[in-house]
Design a protein that fits this description.
single chain; 328 residues; alpha+beta; 5-stranded antiparallel β-sheet; 10 helices; 14 strands; 33% helix; binds biotin
Length: 328
């Protein structure tokens, strides 16, 4: 159904200056008047401003920043990532949708992209929720089937952070840091997070769903997030294009994955190290399940684990966890 609503929105964007007859829209889309009215309502709920009703005709009163596949598909510069695409106005969670697709046992193409304008149950790391304000952020999941051993899976999430870092810096000129393992920070506040959900056996990854949430045009955050979260709009002082960032991110990520497959872990380890102030010499406190490791970071090991030197002089290698405190 969302694909049909995309068609409706595309038709409206092609006729911005005039009201398009509801009669004609319904006929072109092959639906009844009541279905058309329902879809218009769904667009309005997603933040799209549409004036009028079925008998007077409909007119967009503001160009919506919706990630319309009709608009950005022709501009994709990738071979795999985003070539198969699902676009939702609202979904529970793009990761959950991807897992449902994979769970049905049908063949899901490598690089399948699921995009949502908003999520009703966006998932964060450590069982948290991800704040997913409509039409303001990038909320996406990519289905990856990397032909590497499961021990190297963390490198893919580090690579995803590098790709998003590069796409954001290129488009905004903002200074972006990567907080281990894959949060993006601007001025010490979180602007993006990633959630990888993986199915693997001992020697093979069946799939990895890479979920990415980027705060792009949020102008305000709920009270509990306001002190720690920011958006590109808040950090730069003006709205940013989700489409441009998305196109660059997909291109960067595909390029990095290709180089990783031919060049090995060092490709990602070195790129991540170049862009993260957390790689070396940073005093941190990291929670990993029930244990807490305090110390100074000493780079990534060959498979992407973070090395932390404790005050006892021991070097711990961390494969997952969360940096709870760090020196600014
Ligand atoms: C984090 O806690 O830092 C990870 C946040 C990941 C959020 C994204 S939004 C798109 C994708 N779908 C989800 O349900 N979560 C991820």
């Amino acid at each position: 159904m969302d694909r049909k609503i995309d068609e409706l929105l595309f038709a409206l964007t092609q006729n911005m200056t005039i009201a398009v007859s509801g009669e004609k829209l319904a006929r072109d889309l092959g639906v009844s008047h009541s279905t058309l009215a329902r879809w218009i309502e769904k667009l309005r709920n997603a933040g799209v401003e549409v004036r009028g009703e079925i008998f007077t005709g409909y007119r967009l009163t503001r160009v919506p920043d919706v990630l319309l596949p009709q608009v950005f598909r022709p501009r994709l510069r990738t071979h795999r990532l985003g070539r198969t695409l699902y676009h939702f106005y609202s979904v529970d969670s793009t990761n959950a949708f991807a897992l449902r697709l994979l769970g049905r046992g049908q063949n899901v193409a490598e690089g399948t992209l699921i995009l949502a304008e908003s999520q009703t149950a966006g998932r964060g790391r450590m069982g948290r929720q991800w704040h997913s304000e409509p039409e303001s952020g990038l909320y996406l999941s990519l289905v990856l089937k990397p032909e590497v051993p499961p021990t190297l899976a963390p490198l893919i999430t580090l690579g995803c952070a590098v790709a998003l870092h590069n796409a954001v810096e290129k488009n905004t000129r903002l200074d972006v840091d990567i907080k281990w393992p894959n949060d993006l920070l601007i001025g010490g506040k979180k602007v993006a997070g990633m959630l990888a959900e993986i199915q693997a056996d001992l020697d093979r990854i069946h799939f990895l769903v890479m979920g990415v949430g980027l705060n792009v045009n949020h102008s305000v955050f709920p009270e509990d997030l306001a002190a720690t979260a920011t958006s590109l709009r808040l950090a730069s002082g003006h709205a940013q294009s989700r489409v441009e960032i998305l196109l660059d991110f997909l291109e960067q990520f595909e390029g990095l994955l290709d180089r990783f497959h031919t060049g090995g872990p060092e490709v990602i380890v070195s790129e991540w190290t170049r862009h993260s102030s957390f790689a070396n010499g940073k005093r941190v406190e990291i929670a990993d399940g029930s244990r807490v490791v305090e110390g100074v970071t000493r780079g990534l090991n060959a498979v992407g684990a973070l090395r932390v030197e404790t005050s006892a002089g021991r070097v711990e290698e961390l494969y997952s966890g969360e940096v709870r405190k760090w020196e600014r």
